[in-house]
Design a protein that fits this description.
Single alpha-helices involved in coiled-coils or other helix-helix interfaces, 7-stranded mixed beta sheet, binds nicotinamide 8-bromo-adenine dinucleotide phosphate, 466 residues, pentose shunt, 8% strand, globular, alpha/beta
C-alpha cells in the first residue's frame, strides 16, 4: 500500500511526485493521457518508490487508508470531474487535496459538497513553478485543521526551507489556501509588470543594451530589491538566442498571457470593497499588451512629439531602483489587506505574518523585503492595512521623489508605467486628508437624491439642487 496518490502528471504534477518520492514516501500516480504516465516512469523516475496506475479503481485501492490523493490538474471542470470519478471508490475519512490553482469559491463549494460523502478536502496553494515543485515549493494549505493534520508531515517535508523552517503552514479554513495563492499570483503579476516597466525605461530612455540592463538587474538583486523575479529577470537579459547570439528577449512577441488568478484577485478586491488598483493595473497591463494589432495602428496615428530629455543615467537607475521598492511595497500591502479582509469576511482565520513567512522561500514572489513587512505587521496585529504604520509611510516617503521622477520620465517618453503611476496615486489617495469625494457625493445627491453627510453636523442630508 502506498502512502499517497497523485493524479495529473503535467509540469507541476510530475515534479511534485518526484519531490514526494525523494522524501521517502511511496506514491501511486495516474494521468488522463496514459502515454504521459509511461514516459514519466521511463524517463524521470529513478530510485523513487513511485507506482503507475491506469485506472481510478486500482489507483485508489493501492493507497493506505485513509487515502490521500493529490489532484494536480487544470483548475475548473477537470477538478469537479475527477472528484466525481473518485467518489465511488472513496470511503469515510479519505482525503482529496487539490494542488492546482483553483478559484477559492470553488474550493469552499467542494468542501461543503463533500461533507455529504464524509470525504475530506484540502485546497492546497502551491507556488514555485517546476523547479519549486521538485526541490521545495511554498505550500498554502486550507481546509479543516484536522484534514491538514493528516498530511502535515508530508507537506512539511516536501516544502522549501528558510532558516530551517518549512515554507508551509496551515493557512486557515475552507478555501483560505487557494485564496492566499490567488493573492500571491496577483502580487506576482504586479512585480513582473513593475520590473518590465523599468526594463522599458532603461532600453527606450537610457538606450541600454540587454546586457547592461541585465547588469543593473543583477546589482539590484544583490541589494534591497533581491527577489526571485529580479534574479530570473537578469538571467533572461543575459540569455542569447541560439540562432543569432542576440538577446532572446528581443525576439519574444510582446503579448502577455494569463490564466485567471490575477483577474480573480481584482474581481475579489471589488467584491470585498478593498482598493487594490496596482493589482488590477497588473492585469490591465497584460490585457493592453494583448491588443498588439491595435497598438501598431494607434502608434502610427498618434504623433509622439520628441522631447529632448537628457537623462542622467546614474540618477535614473538609482530612481528606478527606489521606485521598484515603492511599487513592490504597495503591491504587498494591497495583497495583505485583501487577505486580512477576506479572513474576517469569510472566517478564514488567516495569520498574514505567517503567510508572508511561507512566501520567503520556494515561491515566485519570494523577496528580501518580506522580512521588513513581517516586522511591520508584528508591530500591530490588529491593523488590517499595514500601510497604516509609521515605518511604512517613512519607507514610502523615502522613495516618493524617485517614483515621481520615473513616472514623469515615462510620460515624457510616452512609455506606459501602469504600476508606477497607479501605486503612486494609490499612496496619494491614502495620505490625502480631504479628498474630492465631497463633490462626488454632491453629484450623487443632485441626480439621484442619494443623500450625503456633512462635516459640520451629524445626520443624513438631501438638497433640492435645482
Ligand atoms: P499542465 O498543463 O502541465 O498539466 C495539466 C494536467 O492536467 C495534465 O496532467 C492533464 O492531463 C491534466 N488534465 C487536464 Br488539462 N484536463 C483534465 C481532465 N479533464 N481530467 C483529468 N486530467 C486533466 O499544468 P501544470 O502547469 O502542471 O498545472 C497543474 C495545476 O497546477 C494547474 O491548476 C495550475 O494552474 C497549477 N499551478 C501551476 C504552476 C506552474 O508554474 N505551472 C504553479 C502553481 C500551480 P493530460 O496529460 O491527459 O493532458
Amino acid at each position: 500500500m502506498n502512502d499517497i496518490g497523485l493524479i495529473g502528471l503535467g509540469v507541476m504534477g510530475e515534479n511534485l511526485a518526484l519531490n514526494i518520492g525523494r522524501n521517502n514516501y511511496s506514491l501511486s500516480v495516474l494521468n488522463r493521457t496514459i502515454e504521459k504516465t509511461k514516459m514519466f516512469m521511463e524517463q524521470k523516475v529513478r530510485d523513487e518508490n513511485i507506482m503507475p496506475f491506469y485506472d481510478i479503481k486500482s489507483f485508489v485501492e493501492s493507497l493506505e487508508r485513509p487515502r490521500k490523493i493529490i489532484l494536480m490538474v487544470k483548475s475548473g471542470e477537470p477538478v469537479d470531474n475527477l472528484i466525481h470519478e473518485l467518489l465511488p471508490y472513496l470511503e469515510n475519512g479519505d482525503l482529496i487535496i487539490d494542488g492546482g490553482n483553483s478559484y477559492f469559491k470553488d474550493t469552499d463549494r467542494r468542501i461543503e459538497e463533500l461533507k455529504a460523502s464524509n470525504v475530506l478536502y484540502l485546497g492546497l496553494g502551491i507556488s514555485g513553478g517546476e523547479y519549486g515543485a521538485l526541490n521545495g515549493p511554498s505550500l498554502m494549505p486550507g481546509g479543516l485543521l484536522e484534514t491538514y493534520k493528516l498530511v502535515e508531515d508530508i507537506l512539511l517535508n516536501i516544502a522549501a526551507k528558510v532558516d530551517s523552517k518549512p515554507c508551509c503552514t496551515y493557512v486557515g479554513d475552507d478555501g483560505a489556501g487557494h485564496f492566499v495563492k490567488m493573492i500571491h499570483n496577483g502580487i506576482e503579476y504586479g512585480i513582473m509588470l513593475g520590473i518590465s516597466e523599468a526594463y522599458n525605461i532603461m532600453r527606450k530612455g537610457l538606450m541600454l543594451s540587454s546586457k547592461e540592463i541585465g547588469d543593473t538587474f543583477k546589482k539590484w538583486n544583490d541589494g534591497e530589491l533581491g527577489s526571485y523575479l529580479m534574479e530570473i529577470s537578469y538571467k533572461i537579459m543575459y540569455h542569447e538566442d541560439e540562432n543569432n547570439n542576440r538577446p532572446l528577449v528581443d525576439f519574444i512577441l510582446d503579448k502577455a498571457e494569463q490564466k485567471g488568478t490575477g483577474k480573480w484577485t481584482s474581481i475579489t478586491a471589488l467584491e470585498l470593497g478593498i482598493p487594490a488598483p496596482s493589482l488590477t493595473a497588473a492585469v490591465d497591463g497584460r490585457l493592453i499588451s494583448h491588443f498588439k494589432e491595435e497598438r501598431i495602428k494607434l502608434s502610427n496615428v498618434f504623433e509622439k512629439k520628441k522631447v529632448n530629455l537628457s537623462l542622467d543615467k546614474e540618477k535614473t537607475i538609482y530612481d528606478l531602483e527606489k521606485s521598484l521598492l515603492f511599487n513592490q511595497f504597495i503591491l504587498f500591502s494591497q495583497g495583505i489587506w485583501l487577505i486580512n479582509e477576506a479572513s474576517n469576511v469569510y472566517n478564514y482565520n488567516i495569520d498574514s505574518a505567517e503567510v508572508l513567512r511561507i512566501w520567503k522561500g520556494g515561491c515566485i514572489i519570494r523577496a528580501k523585503m518580506i522580512n521588513f513587512l513581517i516586522e511591520i505587521i508584528n508591530e500591530d496585529r490588529e491593523n488590517i492595512n499595514f500601510l497604516n504604520n509609521k515605518k511604512s509611510v517613512d519607507f514610502l516617503l523615502g522613495k516618493f521623489n524617485s517614483t515621481k521622477h520615473i513616472s514623469n520620465i515615462a510620460k515624457d517618453l510616452y512609455i506606459p508605467a501602469l504600476i508606477h503611476n497607479t501605486s503612486m496615486d494609490y499612496f496619494l489617495g491614502l495620505i490625502e486628508e480631504n479628498s474630492a469625494a465631497n463633490l462626488m457625493q454632491a453629484q450623487r445627491d443632485y441626480f439621484g437624491a442619494h443623500t450625503y453627510e456633512r462635516v459640520d453636523s451629524e445626520g443624513i442630508f438631501h438638497t433640492e439642487w435645482e
